[in-house]
Amino acid sequence: MQRIRTMQENAQSPHISRPCKAISIRFKAIVSWLFLLAILPILGYGREPAGSEKVNDGTSVTYPPSIFRCGAWNLLPVTRTVFLGRTGYQRSFSDGNIELLLPDLAEVKRPEIIVGAGRYESKLKTALPSGADYTIGPDEWGLNLQYDIFLMDAVYDGIRIVQQVRLRPSKPIHENFQVILPLIVQLPCRDRRVFAPRKNGVGEEKQIASERQKWFYYLTGSDLKRDVPALAIPMISEYSPSFPYRITLCADPYYSTLLEIGSTEQPGSFIWEYQAKDVPLSEPETRTFYTIVHRGGHEDAMRAFYASALADIPPGPQWLHEIVMVDYDYLSDGGEGWFRDIDWLTEHIPQNDRRHICLALHGWYDLLGQYAFDAGTGTMKSEWKAFPNAPNVIDKFPNSKTVAMTPAEVNRRLQYAKDRGFRVVLYFADGMAICEDAKEFYKPEKILYSGGWQGPDTIGPTHIQNPLNPEVKDYFLSYMDALLKAFGNNTDGFVWDETFHVEPQHLGTQTFPGYASREMMYLCRDLARKVHDYRSDCAFLASDCIGVFGWNRKAPYALVVDGTYQDSHFRSEAWPYGLFPNYRNVLWSCSWNHVTHFSEMPDDIRKYDVPIPVTNGWGDDLGFSELPLEIAAKILNLFEERKGHVVQLKWLAPDDTE
Prior knowledge:
The chain contains eleven helices and 36 strands.
């Protein structure tokens, strides 16, 4: 058993410890600077008006001061022209008092790529206002690399160095290659440490050794770094008890990234690999990376990550943090279980406490992959049959029945809960699943792989769709528009079940190749935006199920939505893997065996700060109104203990051994 770490800021001393430098190194540096200052005028540098520099071809480029100066901080190249155009060296990164670029690391190469055993430096083509345009890689590739670097304000009296790399192929590339973006900023201390949000929910704290150290964030393609500690999010943070600032390194979350902390002799790097053998590189690729210098503790590093790599992703609505009990109703008891359970809750839960309970309406649609959506009109169908396959699966779902449904009936069910003071969310979809009888939308060319849920809401085999197929993406976006129009005023949010269907190793199909998990994350983000644009207090939840059934490498789609409501059966092994991806939001699970396994639940509820789960329509198939009296009393007592508690996820401490 692991105990939870409470988050506290690290006590930090204003004293600065710097590594000693040999006198000979100092002398050589001074001579080098004097020589450089002497020859710059001869080369034509240093005589232009402020903000303007000569580049190699004799043209003039203007550099906005804001690019290299932000508040008290300055990012100084040897000269801006030399930094951007010819050598790629920097000489300083300072606020006027604290220098974070160590002299030993100043001469660091520009971005590089590795192809097989070959290593290729970037070659200057054109200097740009905030960077440069290079050619890179084998000459026959014709690959361009645009590199931009600039400063932005950061949280907690800090600053951000933003580095953006854009690759532009002139023709398709069919060889795998790595891109290396060097870092040269690090803490000028001997006692350097790192905080790493590990995939298993542990906030690792580690002394930085004399050699470079690596961590890997896995989202796309083959898991090539299984021997490197896995990160839950693309972030690590360097700190020291003897230094007032820390340096948080993070990458955009849409691609796998190796994050490397540098030593006193070697710089760190951001490294990523394109699997161009399987996914030819034919379109531009853009990555963005952040080096954030700020004050505070580990929790502030998490906030810096959200403010940078996820700056365009807002946190979920605040009401999510007030929920301490959840219910998943799978059109139970011929659709009548929904009303009976709400009536029971209304009788046993005071009006003022009902806002702490969220009810999920599942099974309301016709078929997986169709969801009662009329593509011809772009609206929900006027009528349909929910659970159309119920008569044929009565052995596994004995209490399920086919139910006549309309948009008005769905709204009546939602409003029945809302009128009584409960929060309510609507089931959006079962991941990317579609059954073959969803004839309006099923096409073989849409399929990524076969297999999936079979039940009263499926007819025919089930398959998983490819998010790289534009028709698939367009369907989900149009379907969401129709849902919001039909039901958006009567629901507090939507649950996208089984988002884990699309895994990092999936590289699309021959017709639609690509990084399927990246496209899935984009789709999750875009659907959440639609929901937020419709109503800012409306939530969109994913279901990543990382960690359950040994699924330790699943993608963290929850990063770009409002949290998780997953079908992990409330299994203990899943909770740690959801802590960092959902850190600022919430982590929920249904439990289809909430009666059978109730004794195992209270400890996890308190330990991981997650809601009490109840379900109806499958498994134990016992809703609130059908609970054994002893279990009902225990659930009510646990609710009484938890109500009013504001949920805040916490990571696991590195020294937990229980």
